[in-house]
Write a structure and sequence with these properties.
It is built from 1 helix and 11 strands; from the N terminus they run H-E-E-E-E-E-E-E-E-E-E-E. By secondary structure, it is mainly beta. The chain has a single domain, classed as 3-layer Sandwich (Rieske Iron-sulfur Protein), CATH 2.102.10. The strands form 2 sheets. The chain has a 7-stranded antiparallel sheet, with no helix packed on it. It has a 4-stranded antiparallel sheet with strand order 6-7-8-9, with no helix packed on it. It is globular, with a radius of gyration of 18 Å.
């Protein structure tokens, strides 16, 4: 009887763990460094962004997701990272635009094809409007000892 109770408690404990982030687009590795105190200085400001793709000069070991990675800052200048691919389109050539109104980044991005708008300013990437039913693919942003960050999946 004690074993059954133990197994039941163990199963409940295991099932209450954090759910793994849902993959909304095809998997592609993400692993690169962001340095707001150096080359990526624009990310020191609130509600700013920078797009990272394989087109810039980076170490050959860096990986930038399926369609590239959008790194944004929220109102407290905390970093959040999303794949540029619209989850409704699942096409690496169709990406979201952080400056879709021509006024700069406002905490939202819009798909250039389907018109879905996603809220990125809180680090979640939820759909605000449009046909998409899935949020943007999020990536982890880890603070390093030197004050830079590592973006990974």
């Amino acid at each position: 009887m004690k074993r059954i109770v133990f197994l039941l408690v163990l199963l409940i404990g295991i099932s209450c763990g954090d759910e793994a982030p849902r993959q909304t687009i095809p998997f592609a590795p993400v692993n690169f460094r962001v340095d707001p105190g150096g080359a990526d200085h624009q990310l020191k400001n609130e509600l700013s962004y920078k797009i990272f793709t394989g087109n810039e000069a980076h170490p050959s070991s860096d990986r930038f997701g399926y369609a590239g990675v959008l790194v944004v800052t929220d109102a407290k200048a905390a970093l959040h990272a999303f794949d540029l691919c619209c989850p409704h389109e699942d096409n690496k050539k169709i990406v979201v635009d952080p400056d879709y109104e021509g006024k700069g980044y406002n905490g939202k991005v819009k798909c250039s094809s389907c018109g879905s708008v996603f809220v990125t300013m809180f680090g979640i990437g939820n759909v605000e409007s449009g046909p998409s039913t899935e949020p943007l693919q999020r990536y982890s942003v880890i603070l390093l000892q030197d004050g830079s960050y590592r973006v990974v999946n």
